[in-house]
Amino acid sequence: MTSETDHLTVVTHPLVQHKLTLMREEETSTAKFRQLLREISQLLAYEVTRNLEMTSKTIKTPMCEMEAPLLDGKKLALISILRAGNGLLDGILELVPAARVGFVGLYRDEETLQPVQYYFKVPENLEDRLVIAVDPMLATGNSSVAAIDLLKQAGATNIRFLCLLAAPEGVARMKEAHPDVPIITASLDEKLNEQGYIVPGLGDAGDRMFGTK
Ligand SMILES: O=P(O)(O)OC[C@H]1O[C@H](OP(=O)(O)OP(=O)(O)O)[C@H](O)[C@@H]1O
Ligand SMILES: O=c1cc[nH]c(=O)[nH]1
Ligand SMILES: [Mg+2]
What we know:
213 residues, alpha/beta, Rossmann fold, eight-stranded mixed beta sheet, three-stranded parallel beta sheet, 6 helices, 15 strands, binds 1-O-pyrophosphono-5-O-phosphono-alpha-D-ribofuranose, binds uracil, binds magnesium ion, allosteric enzyme, Upp_B, magnesium, transferase, PRTase-like
């Protein structure tokens, strides 16, 4: 269940929306927040992996032989935008354990709202893989645009961006900078506040996930 434009897909499935409500609530504990993010990541994975290329193999069921479809997980590169991206990464990796994994370390300077890079390590031959970049929050879009710039410099050509919440400002920025990168999200929220936080949002995803505040 989705609502789609050519650039943005909002996953409107009731299970996703229910779990997102629980995550947004201020009183939700760190442990519960992390568990919910893992569960939602698996539901969103269903949508973001739609249309993945399949191979096939001849198998024998108890009844007969058949040509059966298979995913080639190695063709998939999951890229976590640290830190908060790891909350989405873990759940998706459980579903596609053969996927290759990379990390882009970025944090947002609280004054300038510009991303500061501190790490970059991605699988080889990104040009041959479907690259799914994951970060729960798309706010100004500065971090995701920077991460995707780096992935393209590393050779990626087929990229999707998966997040939990998106602000209209971030979606517009991504569409301008990377119109070839579809965005899949659980919610398009209302706006950003003066500090660049998503409203109504859920607060700081990294802090809520790791209990750092
Ligand atoms: O769209 P933007 O305005 O760039 O904001 C979104 C970024 O901010 C958060 O990360 P943060 O900088 O808090 O780092 P963290 O994951 O280490 O907490 C979030 O996980 C995104 O990466
Ligand atoms: O609302 C926001 C914006 C950026 N990063 C977050 O974690 N939350
Ligand atoms: Mg944070």
